Each structure stands twice: as C-alpha cells, then as structure tokens.
Amino acid sequence: MVRRSQTEVAVLGALSVAPMTGYAAREAIRDVLGHFWSESFGQIYPTLAELERVGHIRRQESMAYELTDSGRTRLRELLAEPAQRTPPRNGLLLRLFFGRQLGPEACRDLILAARTEAEESLSRYAFLRAEVAAEDSPDTPYSLLTISAGEHAARATLAWADESLTALNRLEDPR
User: What is the value of pTM for the model shown?
Assistant: First the structure.
C-alpha cells in the first residue's frame, strides 16, 4: 500500500465515523488517530479533493464531507489490504547506538526522559480508556484494541528503560 492509500484510509476512516469538514477531519486524525498514526496535514486536503473528484466523498451544504457508497467500498478495500510495515525511525535508539560518544550520563538522561514520557503516555491512555469505554458506540471495542496496544508499548518502554538504566550503572561500576 503506497503512502497515498494510507492517507486515504485515514481520511475515509475518519469520515466513516461522521460527516465532517476538512478542518474537522484533520483535527480528528491528529487528536484521535494521533495516538498511533501520524498524517501529514499537507496530504489531507489534496486527498479530500481527490476523493471528492472520484466520487468517494461528497460535500454537503454545510461544507462537511460525507462518504458515498463507493467511498465506503473503497475504505473496505483499503482496510482489507495487508498493513504495510514502515521502517522504524527512532531518534533515541539512534543516539543510544552511538552512546559511547555521549557517555553513560548523557545516555542515562535520554533513557530517563523516555521513561518519563512512557509514564505520561500510560496516564493519558488510562484517561482515554475510561473516556472511550464510557461511549456507547459500535466502534468502542475496536478503539480499545488500539488503546491497549499503546498501553503495552508504554509498559514495554518502562521495562526496557529500567533494564537499560541497570546496564548503564554496570558500565560505570562493573563490580
């Protein structure tokens, strides 16, 4: 699946929840999907225009876009394709890989910052989980799956950070 189709999935998926303006779609993608998916705002508006041109969405009098039948079909087709793996780009791990150049103290600071971020993420996910669980929506079980993935990733980061801090301590005091 090329980048364009991934953007189509995000836009069509957002519009499958409810009709919305381009701005609202952009905000929904940032605020709701942003916990696990980032989309370039520069891609959203051209994608909306293209989807409208080919008839997958139409603009209502209120200027909100809504899915058409062909748009719903296109979304299902795109969702049925295998998910494309993207190569990871992790600035923290890049720095730690060359950590000898930084030294243990600077590496410790980087890991502690990652640990703090993971703790904050867990807190945000707990709030989000409660908020989503309170909704009476057929989308709730699926939303909870993505929240669970974020929680697991944050807990894994915490475990990794603790393990890495212990390893750095051994570098400084090999006894």
Answer: 0.79
